[in-house]
Specification:
By secondary structure, this protein is of the alpha/beta class. It is built from ten helices and ten strands. An eight-stranded parallel barrel has the order 1-2-3-4-5-6-7-10, surrounded by six helices. Helix 4 packs parallel to helix 5 (144-154) and helix 8 runs parallel beside helix 9 (241-250). The protein is globular and about 40 Å long.
């Protein structure tokens, strides 16, 4: 029977031999299990997660910002019920300071509905005073040439929000594309994937087709690919989010993915948290 001294000498020598042996690929060492392969690097995500202001239409700015801070979401598309179109410079400054205190940046303004040239002028002037260079807008079709002029004048991007079968103007991504493809390249769309699906379209395919004009995205899930589809927590509905994430990477989308949660809008907080958690998990943010 070997004594303790002999046992430790043999053990120490074995450890040195193992330390010197190269552990490459699936090379085996007698009496030793195959080494664990290193995990592949995580996929990179160039896109950012934000929040569409309309999600909080029933809540004040303080509640909105506290919620975003708890969710670790740092970007907000500004709606006029939180910062009115006629806000003074002082009100705009106070708004940004409050956002900054919660780690939130207002990255765009809208959706802003525009039914006259005067309303287009007002929307662009507002965005400039707020300090954003992306407008999420809904102009009447006949105003598009005027919007084209304003985009050139202001050097802004203008993302038209599509609305599915509920509103005749801009029901889906193809409609926005057809109305903007010959305009300034800074005019494109806010791809609302839920409304696009509810109009019988495939938002993943549309992202791939029109990605050069997708400047913003409203992410949500819906229960059906028809007008009867209603809002539901992300991951419970009909949208293929893993395929969407794959497409975002394929087209190198660098814009915002903003949750627009429209279920239980007077008590949305659990649904918002579930949706954000699901999206972050599959996107590996």
């Amino acid at each position: 029977m070997q004594n303790r001294r002999t046992f430790f000498k043999q053990s120490f020598a074995g450890a040195l031999m193992l330390g010197a042996a190269p552990l490459v690929g699936n090379a085996k060492i007698a009496g030793v299990m195959d080494p664990v392969k290193p995990k592949p690097p995580k996929a990179t995500n160039p896109f950012k997660l934000g929040m569409a202001g309309f999600t909080f239409v029933n809540f004040d700015l303080d509640t909105t910002l506290k919620t975003l801070e708890r969710l670790d979401v740092h970007y907000l598309c500004i709606k006029d019920f939180h910062l009115p179109l006629d806000s003074t410079d002082e009100q705009i400054r106070a708004f940004h300071e409050k956002c900054a205190s919660h780690g939130v940046t207002g990255y765009a303004a809208g959706p802003i509905y525009m039914k006259s040239e005067a309303e287009v002028d007002r929307g662009f002037a507002y965005a400039r005073r707020v300090g954003v260079k992306l407008i999420v807008g809904v102009p009447d079709y006949e105003l598009l040439p005027y919007v084209d002029r304003k985009v050139k004048e202001y050097d802004f991007h203008y993302a038209i929000h599509l609305h599915g079968p509920d509103i005749k103007t801009y029901p889906d991504a193809t409609d926005v594309w057809e109305h903007t493809k010959d305009l300034d390249r800074r005019i494109g769309m806010c791809l609302d994937i839920g409304h696009d699906l509810r109009n019988g379209c495939d938002p993943v395919a549309d992202l791939r087709k029109y990605h050069t004009r997708v400047f913003d995205m409203h992410i949500k899930d819906v229960t059906d690919s028809t007008k009867a589809g209603t809002a539901i927590e992300i991951g419970r509905g009909k949208i293929d989010f893993p395929a969407l994430i794959k497409a975002l990477r394929e087209v190198n989308y660098t814009g915002m993915c903003s949750l627009e949660y429209e279920k239980d809008m007077k008590d949305p907080f659990l649904g918002i948290a579930e949706s954000i958690g699901y999206f972050k998990a599959i996107a590996d943010l």
